[in-house]
Amino acid sequence: MTWIKICGTTNAEDAQLAVSAGADAVGFVLHEGSKRNVNAETVRNISASLPGHIEKIGVFVNAPADRIETVVKNSGLTGVQLHGNETAEFARNLFDRLGGKIEIIRVVALADVPPGRELAYGFDPVSAGILSTEEAENIATRMRDAAIDSGLPPARAAEIHADVVQRVILDSGGPGEGGTGKPFDWNAYRQFSDAMNSFTNIIIAGGLTPANVGEAIRLLRPWGVDVVSGVESAPGKKDPEKVRSFVKAVREAEKA
């Protein structure tokens, strides 16, 4: 099933709403520049009230590793979303410091990745902070070996994932600016999304609503979806009907 994250959670009532609607994860923004910013104590109190199977994802923007580590260890977070200019080495260091027991999610800001010209503009998983140079080389080797063993071309070889950043959010915003609440051109980025899916789990974000999430899933076939403003009545306050309609639309799209 498509993984669903309801992000920008600021209170326990909205977190419980997400759970009852059928979401897989709730997200907390720990960045002072956001209208939905919460502190570690709030995250801890909300997380303590949620079922164990629900993922609790903290969103950070260029925060020091020491701060992220402290928040994770004192708040009940199960995942960290890096929404700034963090490198793959930063992600690896953070992963190791947290004992390899936390999900690391990286955001790719499509405002700086013109569709169809990714390579021309120098985009690659290493510069995006998704893979270290060593990981990229290892994956390339493993893909070639898998292609030889299976008789398939490399692009169709067995799925091989990154070691640390195993989830990547494709969003319409620029680096560090957070979500824009507007969708990117899903059709234009279909090939790019497919390429990213070859080594990580793609999550679609940016302007998703109950009305359009089905189309995003149909076009991009993502591993997951992430929504904030599309299910709110005001910044930081969720609309119950929109939340339930969003989850329902995702589940219906899976059946199509």
Please describe what this structure looks like.
The chain has 256 residues and is of the alpha/beta class. The chain has helices at 12-21, 40-47, 65-75, 88-97, 133-150, 190-196, 213-220, 240-255; strands at residues 3-6, 25-29, 55-60, 79-82, 103-109, 167-171, 201-204, 224-227, 232-234, 237-238. Helices cover 34% and strands 17% of the residues. The chain is globular and about 50 Å long. It has an eight-stranded parallel barrel. The chain has a two-stranded antiparallel ribbon with strand order 9-10. The chain has a single domain, classed as Alpha-Beta Barrel (TIM Barrel), CATH 3.20.20. The protein starts with a strand and ends with a helix. Residues 152-160 have low confidence and may be disordered.
Architecture blueprint of SSEs:
Elements: E1 3-6, H1 12-21, E2 25-29, H2 40-47, E3 55-60, H3 65-75, E4 79-82, H4 88-97, E5 103-109, H5 133-150, E6 167-171, H6 190-196, E7 201-204, H7 213-220, E8 224-227, E9 232-234, E10 237-238, H8 240-255
Parallel strand pairs: 1-2, 1-8, 2-3, 3-4, 4-5, 5-6, 6-7, 7-8
Antiparallel strand pairs: 9-10
Helix pairs in contact: 1-8, 2-3, 7-8
Helicity, as a percent range: 25-40%
Structural class: alpha/beta
Label the CATH architecture: Alpha-Beta Barrel
How many helix segments? 8
What would the keywords be for this entry?
single chain, TIM Barrel, two-stranded antiparallel sheet, 10 strands, 34% helix, 17% strand
